[in-house]
Amino acid sequence: MLVSDLTPSLRRYCRSFFENWQDADDAVQEVWIKVWKSMHTLQQNGAFKTWLFRMTRHVCLDRIRSSQNRVQVVDAEEFSGQPAPEHLSPEYLAVQRSEVERAWSIVAKLPSTLGQAFVLVCLEGMTYEQAATIANTSESTIRGRVARARKAIIEAVS
Question: Which of 6, 25, 75, 149 has the fewest CB neighbours in a 10 Å radius?
Answer without folding.
Answer: 75
